[in-house]
């Protein structure tokens, strides 16, 4: 238990350092509320951060707060495994889309991220990247009707995709008809800017491609599935003109 608390505290302190750098003046009460801990806990964190050499200034009195010297730079990033995977996949997507701008340093960032993984996790990430498919840009008609999926849907789909876990979803078709389904999210397809989940649909007992912004609700089931090869979804993907 102590180890878990120590990990939580170290991560919170890293987040506090970044937050104080970005937001400027913050009050201890605001920080405690945002991190869901007591003001006393935040005060102890700040004291320890000062002892470690971080230039944290305090303004005393009514309306006072704490700030981090703006000339100080955050010297390292402490990403969780899930955050590092997200960043690495985002880099891979950017490179696959062959955008000519802002790619000069992505190769270096990718190599550093990959090097931070253990060999086992490195292999897992490599397999996961192969499940991200890039297609043509969506038509103007499709783009005109796209909307951001609800955050809880994105979070559930993201985790189920990473863990190869069956997902219970509520889905609305283009004609407005809704249905409840259980799907296996095998692949994700980007036809910029629209994301699709390429899945095995247990309602139809067949492969299907679902537009992510039409998923109304999503709930993880805890049931694992075995990944099917991309060829198994050829009929569902026909016409998407995927890029290798």
From TrEMBL:
- Please list which residues make up the signal peptide: none
Q: Which Pfam families match?
A: HTH_11, WYL
Q: Which UniProt keywords apply?
A: Transcription, Transcription regulation
Task: List the transmembrane segments.
Answer: none
Give the GO molecular function terms: DNA-binding transcription factor activity
The record places domain HTH deoR-type at 9-67
Q: Which PANTHER family match?
A: PROTEIN PAFC, PTHR34580
**Protein's UniProt name:** Helix-turn-helix, type 11 domain protein
Species assigned in the record = Maricaulis maris (strain MCS10)
Lineage, opening ranks: Bacteria, Pseudomonadati, Pseudomonadota, Alphaproteobacteria, Maricaulales
């Amino acid at each position: 238990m102590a180890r878990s608390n120590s990990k939580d505290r170290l991560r919170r302190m890293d987040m506090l350092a970044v937050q104080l750098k970005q937001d400027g003046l913050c009050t201890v009460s605001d920080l405690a509320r945002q991190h869901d801990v007591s003001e006393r806990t935040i005060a102890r964190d700040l004291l320890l951060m000062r002892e470690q050499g971080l230039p944290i200034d305090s303004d005393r009195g009514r309306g006072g707060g704490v700030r981090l010297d703006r000339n100080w730079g955050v010297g390292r990033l402490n990403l969780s495994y899930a955050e590092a995977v997200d960043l690495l996949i985002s880099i891979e997507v950017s490179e696959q889309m062959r955008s000519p701008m802002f790619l000069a340093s992505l190769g270096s960032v990718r190599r550093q991220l990959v090097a931070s993984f253990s060999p086992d996790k490195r292999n897992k990430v490599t397999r996961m990247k192969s499940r991200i498919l890039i297609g043509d840009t969506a038509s103007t008609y499709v783009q005109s009707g796209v909307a951001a999926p609800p955050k809880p849907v994105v979070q559930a789909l993201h985790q189920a995709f990473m863990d190869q876990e069956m997902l219970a979803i509520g889905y609305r078709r283009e004609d407005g008809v809704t249905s409840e389904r259980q799907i296996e999210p095998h692949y994700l397809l980007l036809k910029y800017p629209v994301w699709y989940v390429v899945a095995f649909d247990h309602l139809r007992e067949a492969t299907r491609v679902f537009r992510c912004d039409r998923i109304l609700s999503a709930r993880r089931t805890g049931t694992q599935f075995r990944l099917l090869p991309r060829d198994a979804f050829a009929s569902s993907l026909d016409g998407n003109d995927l890029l290798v």
